[in-house]
Each structure stands twice: as structure tokens, then as C-alpha cells.
Amino acid sequence: MGDKMSQYFENDLHLKSEIQPYKTKIFDKEFTFLTDNGVFAKKGLDFGSRLLLENLEQEDMKGPFLDVGCGVGTLGIILNQVYGLEGDMVDINLRALHLAKQNCKANHCESLNVYESNCYQNVDGKYRLILTNPPIRAGKKIVYEILEQAKEHLEKDGTLYFVIRKEQGAKSIISDMEKSYHVTIIERKKGFFIVKCKN
Question: Which of 29, 86, 112, 123 has a Cα-to-Cα distance from 106 of 20 to 30 A?
């Protein structure tokens, strides 16, 4: 991957902006998202996020939700439009957050709350559902912080969902999460694992 991709979890003020729209269809609904250099999955809905969305279990689709590392807002916006869930979306990347706010307006999700937070630094609430496609390139420490500290922000019967690739250490990460959660592997496909963690 080039430098444009490797910086999506940082704020690179020197990176040229080239905002582009893309359309994606999921759950028989069509969505339009604005994307840009320096944000995750700038070419469209990535395979891991799609697989995560398609394997969320209906019983867990209760709000409020928190999307950690929301990027341009894809997961949260689709959750809102498909399941009617309300919630918050956080990221450290200011360019991504700016786009997420625009994407909320474009997809009629103005009620969703989008704000800056380094992992859970600015997160105060408790949630029924937390989901994340964690920023692997930010390093293991950040990934573990997102996954382990979710427990502190989940309601008693809350659920964490995340997607992780085999080559990114999925098996060891899942094993470590089993120390804190009741863990279920919901789906495995093309080296991606969709993982459900109950509080």
C-alpha cells in the first residue's frame, strides 16, 4: 500500500484532497459516500466491512450503537438506514470525520452523532452495540485498546462486533478477547473473521 493509505489513522495536513463519491448497494439499499485521500477504503465499501455488516445478528441490532474508527461513516450510516439504530461515530482522522458528517446528510442520517475521539478518549456513554473494523496499520496497541476497552462502554447485555484478517493475527487476538468476553466467530471468509463478543 502507498503512503496515502498508510496514513488513514493520522491527520496529514499536507495530503492533497481529492474528494470523490462512490455508490454501494447492500441489503437492497443504495448508498452514496464521499471519500478522499488519507481515509480508509477510499475506493468503496471494503470487503471486511461488508462482511461484518452482512453477518450482524438480528438479536443484537439494538441501539444506541458506537462505531469506533468510523472513517467516512459507512458502518454507522448503513446501521441507521437498515435497522433504524441511533448512535455515535468516532474517529481520530479529521478529514474522515468531515466526510462522515457530509455522508450523514447525504444519506438522511442527520441524527447520528459524529465526533473526534482517539479510541474512547472522548466517549462517555454506554452502548448496546459497539462495532469496529479496527485500524490494523495503527498497530497492535491501538487495536487491543479498541477491543478491550469496549467492555467499559458496553451496557450489561451489550455486544461488540469486529472484523479481523487471519494474516493480521486474528487467531491470537480472538484468543486474547476470550479472557474478557464470551466470544463467537460468526463468519470466516477469504481470510476474514467476523467476531462477536458478549459482555
Answer: 123
